[in-house]
């Protein structure tokens, strides 16, 4: 048929690749090689390019063969004719090994920086929400719709390789971090999993996973299983997960809605990231999932305690308020317990405000 390239939807061994190339007289690329080629085209950030190069070199290292022709650098005879004492194949292997070590060292530094950022967020009790899902399910479009960001989104495989983090506010939860991550694919090569370990760490240590699913895809159930398998591989299977069925605008007769189980807990949200329909339902579902035990208190704030009043006002935690005859403001609050504990350490006078309200 005059083919110039043969793609095999399977992982080939080095010998199988060589034999097929000899048989077909053209380049043969297996599933892993194709994914790596796509990754190489999509990588934009410095870290993404390092990760892709590392995965490519690990893949290439097992596929090095002795080159055709007399290219060995071992020589004998008179002084001055001796080479480095190794064949070209051995030289290639050594250079690849050195480059892999360099890349791993650089990525270790990036990973250390990410780890410091994560510890800072954990110390401040800031929850992280991570978007996961099969590639091209619409994660970046949803990320943009939620955060009003301008992250690159396209109808193509692996449009996102670099994790993007954005801060957002959730009612009764406070500040949260939303992370857009690399899309998964069935039979994800292990080289890629190890190369993108620092990226996937955002998923492993998230407080909540939003599993984005293309509801219009005929193979959505297989895709869900593939994503769950990858989550299990990276150790994120036990993290609370909310299913987000995206692209409902592509189906007739389906409007955005929230799905609940027998205990009335939210299990899935149907929406369209493209049109923005159902985003409000997703915010409500996230609020339900992340909301901790609420602290309900009555506080008496003097006219000079405007800073404390502003704190509760910004968090929408004031449920009722009135003034007494002395001009003091009395407020009834409902605040997330984690947020309250942080404020109680930062503003010791809050406890005094509770006592004052009791004495009236």
UniProtKB/TrEMBL annotation:
Keyword tags: Coiled coil, Cytoplasm, GTP-binding, Magnesium, Metal-binding, Nucleotide-binding
Protein name, as recorded: GTPase HflX
Subcellular localization: Cytoplasm
Function field: GTPase that associates with the 50S ribosomal subunit and may have a role during protein synthesis or ribosome biogenesis.
Subunit structure comment from the entry: Monomer. Associates with the 50S ribosomal subunit.
All residue ranges annotated as the Hflx-type G domain in the record: 127-294
Statement: the UniProt record of this protein carries the keyword Glycosyltransferase: no
Stretches of the chain forming a coiled coil according to its record: 93-120
InterPro entries referenced in this protein's UniProt entry, alphabetically: G_HFLX_dom, GTP-bd, GTP-bd_M, GTPase_HflX, GTPase_HflX_N, GTPase_HflX_N_sf, P-loop_NTPase
Family statement: Belongs to the TRAFAC class OBG-HflX-like GTPase superfamily. HflX GTPase family.
Highest taxon above the source species: Bacteria
């Amino acid at each position: 048929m005059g083919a110039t390239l043969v793609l095999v939807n399977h992982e080939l061994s080095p010998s199988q690749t060589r034999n097929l190339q000899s048989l077909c007289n053209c380049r043969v690329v297996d599933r892993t090689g194709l994914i790596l080629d796509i990754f190489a085209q999509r990588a934009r950030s410095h870290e993404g390019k390092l990760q892709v190069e590392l995965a490519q070199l690990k893949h290439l290292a097992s596929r090095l063969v002795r080159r055709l022709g007399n290219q060995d650098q071992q020589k004998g005879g008179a002084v001055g004719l001796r080479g480095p004492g190794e064949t070209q194949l051995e030289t290639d292997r050594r250079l690849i090994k050195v480059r892999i070590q360099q890349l791993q060292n650089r990525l270790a530094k990036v990973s250390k920086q990410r780890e410091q950022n994560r510890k800072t967020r954990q110390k401040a009790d800031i929850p992280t929400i991570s978007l996961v899902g099969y590639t091209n399910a619409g994660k970046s479009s949803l990320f943009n719709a939620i955060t009003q960001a301008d992250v690159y989104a396209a109808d193509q495989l692996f449009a996102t390789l670099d994790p993007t983090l954005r801060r957002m506010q959730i009612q009764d939860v406070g500040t949260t971090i939303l992370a857009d991550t690399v899309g998964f694919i069935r039979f994800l090569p292990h080289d890629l999993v190890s190369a993108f370990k620092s990226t996937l760490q955002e998923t492993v240590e998230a407080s909540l996973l939003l599993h984005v699913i293309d509801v219009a895809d005929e193979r959505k159930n297989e895709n869900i299983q593939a994503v769950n398998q990858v989550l299990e591989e990276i150790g994120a299977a036990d993290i609370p997960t909310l299913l987000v069925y995206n692209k409902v605008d592509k189906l007739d007769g389906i409007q955005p809605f929230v799905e609940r189980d027998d205990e009335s807990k939210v299990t899935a949200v149907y929406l369209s990231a493209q049109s923005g329909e159902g985003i409000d339902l997703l915010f409500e579902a996230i609020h339900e999932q992340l909301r901790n035990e609420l602290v309900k208190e009555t506080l008496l704030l003097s006219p000079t305690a405007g800073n404390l009043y502003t704190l509760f006002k910004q968090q929408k935690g004031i449920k009722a308020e009135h003034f007494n005859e002395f001009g003091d403001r009395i407020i009834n609050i409902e605040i997330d317990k984690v947020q309250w504990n942080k404020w109680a350490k930062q503003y010791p006078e809050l406890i005094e405000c509770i006592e004052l309200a009791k004495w009236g």
